# Entry
Amino acid sequence: MQQGFRVIPMSPQTIASWWDDKDDLDLDPVYQRKGHIWSDRQKQDLVDTILNGFDIPKLYFADFTLLDSSLNDKRRKYAVIDGKQRLLSIFGFFEGEFNLAKTFVYFDDPSLSLGGLSYKDLEATYPRISRKFSNYSLAIMAVVTNDEARISELFLRLNASKPLTGAEIRNAMLGEVPALIRELADHSFWQKARFSKTRGQDKNTAAKLLLLEHTGSFVDTKKSQLDRLVDLARAQGDEDTSDETVSDEASEEIIIEDVVDKAEETESSDIRRSAERVKAVLDKLTLLFNDNDPTLAQQAQIPVIYWLARELPDQLGRLREFLLRFDEQRRTNRQLGIEDPQRDPVLIDYELMTRTSNDQSSIGGRYRILRQRYEKFIS
# Structure
């Protein structure tokens, strides 16, 4: 099919109509960031904007009603390109997930005390105001294309001025690596981790594991290296790919070329095989921990724990017990005075290295300490 690209206004449709037809919407295409990351205050502000008659930014939907697109894997009429958080907030107010802010002021009649009311409260007591919400028309642009690259590019451009994390930007990129990172982030191991995953932290950590596994050694796992891994794999699959890399934040301007060299020199240059090896290690780790486990509360610890499991696959039976003890020793050591003779200098070094957790020397140094302590623990 010829891959054209058109962006055209959709016919006006009210909030109530979209809510009724929400099963026609794919809210989670692969380029989207995770949902439910807006605070209640942000959601309340959006409802305030609607009830007080102000405009909200246009939403963009991939429109699958005008062509039989190969991108429509969930067989829905539309997929949300931009506006997911706005839709979730609108639907959430309809469904009673949150109420109006206590400080809400209705500009058409400031004497009304509407603060703290739910949508059902408005329906029951102020039906004219509830209808103002339900009859509000959303401005939506239909994106008609069968070209995933153009959709991903549109998503990135629409969010260019928004604080997307590195993980969210990589998730929207094309190529084999982002897809593999998403597969790794779907692994059940991440249910064991306690840290927040609302902004793609699981994808970010999965990307670090893939980078370490693919290079076969300790390397920097900063944003620049993770983005370079994506670019490298995309370039290997496309002879016409530009040499330009994804721009970095000012603090991460330097790209270490040695990372690419090591990836190319790895015994298996097939990054999918590297991902399969990561999955195999995560399979082992998943059996050892509880859901929301306190030993997996720090993202910075995951690559070090991963490498320990990778190198000692048959000696992991007491790993969780050891990590609980190790964390307690770290806490106790931090509480000791600088001149206290009982203070463990090795654990002090470990704490210092956690401050630069993405550096090659930090990952390797913490791994060596953890391995030495674990081997002593199980001996």
